[in-house]
Amino acid sequence: MDNTTTISASNAIEEPATISLAKPFDKTSVLILHALYAAALITGGLGALAGVIFAYVKRSKDQSEEEQSHYKHAIRTFWWSVGVISLTMVMYMAAIGLAFSGIASGFFGGSILVNGLMFLTSVGLFVWYVIRVIKGFARATDMKGMY
After folding, report:
1. What is the span of the domain harbouring residue 67?
2. Rounded-to-integer distance, Cα 34 and Cα 42, Å
């Protein structure tokens, strides 16, 4: 008996399939994140609070760089918003303090300058926030990173 084995073309070993190491972009989670941030405009900020918690929970090294950039963007948006709102509240308290001390009077009891700064800061924050939410939705829909 002949112990030799012949390999025909049909029995040939195929090349192993290449495995992609790129992590998938979880579009649904990123869209939920931006929807929570959009809801903040209606809920008085509660949506942003839920969104930043969601971003901190979902943020990990297991996502693609594009997905991580959305979480990083959302977290930065939240904390910058908190900072600007805090600054506006300090200006508001200063305006009330000026009114009660008798130094200044006017709209909300403060000087026109302080009130103008409060108004510009609030409008600027609103416009900046809306632009970041819209940009986030657009980039998530295209499955692209924020940066």
Report:
1. 24-141
2. 14
